[in-house]
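USER: For my understanding, would you kindly supply a protein sequence with its structure tokens?

ASSISTANT:
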Amino acid sequence: MAYDPGALNASLAAAVGSDSTLMAELRLAFIESAGRLLDLLGRARCDANWVIAAARLKSLAASFGASGLGALADEALDGAPGDPVVLRKIGAAIDDFAGA
């Protein structure tokens, strides 16, 4: 499933206007933060750590208007800790944002 990076771009443009340098910095910060949270999800060894990382990912996605990533965070919250299918989907979504 591909995720539309256009929503992220629109959110960034609304926040910073035509400042392309700041937009690029914020985009990179989003991608790096999402990657760190994916790493935390992958290393979670208990329910609490999984829930905290998924909730933070959901919050990050909401802050940047990335609703597809937020839906995946919800899927993680509703699922079992360490679910490899959810982890792969989140990784693919982050890759889609990074590649855009």
Q: What stands out?
A: The mean pLDDT is 88. The chain has one domain: 6-12+20-99. Residues 6-12+20-99 form one domain.
